[in-house]
Amino acid sequence: MVAIDPRYKPSTPAPNILRAAYMELIVTDLQRSRHFYVDVLGLIVTEENENEIYLRTYEEYIHHNLVLKKGDAPAVSAYAFRVASQDDVYLAEAYFKELGCEVRRGDFSKGVRNAVRVVDPFGFPYEFFYETDHVERKIRDYDEMNGSSLMRLDHFNQIVGDVEGAAIYMQNLGFKVTENIMDDEGTTYAAWVTRKSTVHDTALTGGDGPLMHHVAFSAGEKNNIIHLCDRLGALRMSDCIERGPGRHGVSNAFYLYLRDPDGHRIEIYTSDYYTGDPDNPTLTWDVHDDQRRSWWGGTSQVVLSWYTENSPVLDLDGNVQPIRPREDKGELDVTVGADGFIYTDKGEHNPR
Ligand code: 4SX
Ligand code: FE2
Ligand code: CA
């Protein structure tokens, strides 16, 4: 593999990235995944054939927010970002070429044209696109919603060995760091970076990578997430709930993590906050603050699988990316067990 310096700032201007727009997941049994995403989670089918299903949320007007593709082993083949114009797609192409990354232009999915796919400096298959079919925005079709329906794609989360380097690379690309988790020695354990005016379009989580941690969809409000838990219970599917429901420390959002039939992690997320001003402050959490990932503690604490089980990502030929080990300490090295099993901070957050 060619070593690429992720901290290098290309002289090519960064493309104007609007938002995280869709993820492409490889699933092993398309009909089993269709049941999970369409019948249970209530995503809308834009288009489908025997090999692929294109899904979207109720607020969306572009062709899709999730592609399920049939394959031999679970993996992720694209993290796709929408850019502001077709010229920005060409800027992305030049920008990643200058970084030394592999770059391809083409039509990679239905409903999206003239896109660019790259293998980014951390090994992730990133796509940048502008041209896409407009489809019906079903935001007012309450008669078709199920009480826990998903409104938007909110963000991605990716595992990288070098969070600091990845945050610099993403800032060069025009992202702002809204929150991060650090220690007194300056190690960064995770960082949340954004282009749209919320807490993140993607999160950089420290660990052996590249791996996909999760893709998050927004619900309208927290009652929709609680209803989804009730629904999963009634469907006798409670074992697909991995973590939550709860309140994040980082982002202040209300959340639930599910595992799909292939083990891909899906987050349902709602009610984070506005970050759109240029001087929006970065909030740094101490890695020893046990409320950073679970504001309530108790039964919403992080479970070990949430840190250790992730999905492989593919290169542009469909091969699994090799894993590069994390060099810095990880959160599991400095906290006990997973999280919240013990309070490890210096007392400032925990008067008892
Ligand atoms: O676990 S954290 O509370 O740090 C967290 C995880 C915050 C926001 C997220 O979207 C997330 O996945
Ligand atoms: Fe998330
Ligand atoms: Ca404490």
Write structural notes for this entry:
This protein has helices spanning 30-40, 86-99, 163-172, 222-234, 304-308, 331-334, and strands at residues 17-27, 44-48, 52-56, 66-70, 75-83, 103-106, 112-113, 115-119, 125-129, 131-132, 150-160, 176-182, 188-194, 202-206, 211-219, 241-247, 254-259, 265-270, 283-286, 311-312. By secondary structure, the protein is an alpha+beta fold. The protein has two domains: 17-132, 2,3-Dihydroxybiphenyl 1,2-Dioxygenase, domain 1; 153-312, 2,3-Dihydroxybiphenyl 1,2-Dioxygenase, domain 1. Strands 11, 12, 13, 14, 15, 16, 17, 18, 19 and 20 form a ten-stranded mixed β-sheet that branches. Strands 2-3-4-1-5-9-8-6 form an eight-stranded mixed β-sheet, with helices on one face. Strand 12 and strand 13 form a beta hairpin. It is globular, with a radius of gyration of 19 Å. The model has no long low-confidence stretch (mean pLDDT 94). The structure holds 3,4-dihydroxybenzenesulfonic acid, fe (ii) ion and calcium ion. 3,4-dihydroxybenzenesulfonic acid binds at residues 157, 203, 216, 248-251, 253, 267, 269, 292-293.
- Figure out the total of helices: 6
Name of the CATH class of the largest domain: Alpha Beta
Domain count:
2
- Large-scale geometry: globular
Question: What are the salient characteristics of this protein?
Answer:
alpha+beta; 2,3-Dihydroxybiphenyl 1,2-Dioxygenase, domain 1; binds calcium ion; binds 3,4-dihydroxybenzenesulfonic acid; 352 residues; 20 strands; binds fe (ii) ion; 2 domains; 10-stranded mixed β-sheet; 16% helix; 6 helices; 8-stranded mixed β-sheet
